What we know:
Structural class: mainly beta
Strand content: over 45%
Distance between the termini: 104 Å
Number of strands: 47
Largest sheet: 7 strands, mixed
Oligomer: single chain
Mean pLDDT: 89
Helix content: under 10%
Amino acid sequence: MIPPPTTRPFALSPQLPRLGRRPAVLLTALIAACAISGVVAAGDADGSVGEYTLVQCHNADRTIAAAVTQQRSEYAVRNHCTEADERHSVELLNTSRSPLGHNSSILWTAPSGTEIVAARLNAKLRNHDGHRARIFVETDSAHRTGVVSGEDEPTSWRNESWIGADGRHKFGVELECTVVAGCPRSEVAQAQLRNIEITIHDSSPPTVLASGALLAGGWIRGSSELTARASDIGSGIERITASVNGTDLFERDGACDRLGATRLVTVLVPCVGQLGVTTTQDTTAAGFHDGANALRICAVDYGTPGNQGCAEHQVMVDNTAPSAAFTNSEIEDDPELIRATASDATSGLAGGAVIAYRPRGGGWRELETVQYAGGLQARVDSTREAPGDYQFRVIIGDLAGNYRTATQRQNGAEMVLHFPLKSSSDLTASLPQGRSKLLVDYRRSSEVSGRLVDQDGRPIANQPVVVTEHFDAGSVLAERVEQVATDQSGRYRSLLAAGPSRRIEVSYAGSRRYLPDSSAELDLDVRNHTVLSLSKRRARPGGLLYFRGSVGRYQAAVPGRGKLVEIQLKERGRRWGTIRTALRTDPDGRFSLPYRLGRFYTDRVNYRFRAKVASEAGWPYQGTVVSQTKRLSVVPRH
């Protein structure tokens, strides 16, 4: 029903003068004049300006459906428009204490393309305790201008009117608190209206569009459909008509909401904003003739007089079918390009020609067809169909709607092709030494190479080959794609930059002559890497050592818990053993381990230390590797 209230107070504008009171006899005369003008037929002159009158809470109609109210909780709107004669009204009341700027209002908003140019009504406007009642108009920018303000003393019904030379977007009444400290509740303040008449000025003529086969362009023949559509952003469409060469074709009235036989309305938009008519017109009937035909479609909107908009079109007539045939052969380097010649001697070829194909006895499958001067062409994907013979046809029409279906070549032979039309290709790929799986050292680059040949082993030169590297889990990159071209011998080569372990795919997307192909998947594994440093090379019994180092993480993301590392030691002929337990690196792949020597040494002892890293789930480097050995001598005091 009603949008939520606005919280913005509106100020009076000095731009429009406040108009004085109008005597009751003037209001009666204006209502009578309106009733008389309501029986006048709408004008139909191009460029005319139409007006119509909206009545609300009126003796002629007791509804107020076109109004929109905005109110705060401190105010109320009461609709008594259905009360007995001379008691009907709509009013704004105050119900509780109100802050500054809070208000309640009733608004009538001009439809798009129109403006409110005048208003007449009976009103009681009473100010009290800071609550101000006023009638106002408003621009598109929401700037409200006062027209009539309420009295500070009790008042009876008065006739009010407003005329705007340049029109306004909205007309309304409001009751608002205007005191900074707020307004106490008032049972006296009010804005009460009835017998509201709002004159709306519509200067926008309707827009008329016509479509359908009758207006497809150029030449037509026989019976064709005509669709006429009129739209109006103001009062709506009252009537639409059509004629050809001065002979009437049809007339349709729009759905309009008005009061009986008058032209008074109770809604802001009296008629439907759009009206469409679809008919079938026989170009051999009266009104049409061979050659150029002048078609005129007009629409009139609601108002006195109504604004008229028209659309004019020219219709031509012809009855000659075009000719068409497929070329005698296909292009060797582009066998899937299907071509046909086509021409029309009279009106010319129309768009929408279609080349289609089917397996013998099957359903036709249309191809996206391109039309150019003198012919047609379409591309068929013969790899999507089962091998075998396929028939082709072309359907083409002229601008008059005549069609031709052709299934032969220019030499008269039936258009039949054997799928697939492309030649097959063979793509090979390998890592160095012709291997499909290779393990390389950390931060060592590699390469993939191979050859592309046709089904007879002949090289396919200057063709793009795509190398895709899928890196193992834990890598910074998920994949890397590079495109290289084959040389004159069909060979290609692509560098595999240093980085984590990965799977490699090589593919050829095919061309207009060759079918696509791809190689078997290749595995390039990269070894783990680690380094270790020791804080001392000589130490006393009980001394504190620090083991520090890092794990190679080039283009790898260290797991959240870190990468596992073991620090191992070896004494004389003993085996390597892990100090304590395996430790984990920090997010940068670094690790550190403090270690205090025992105090029991009596003789000099030599140790060797190393870091050990192994494969681990979620880590994109492979194999077990150890760092360079670090030596330590423990020398006791004597």
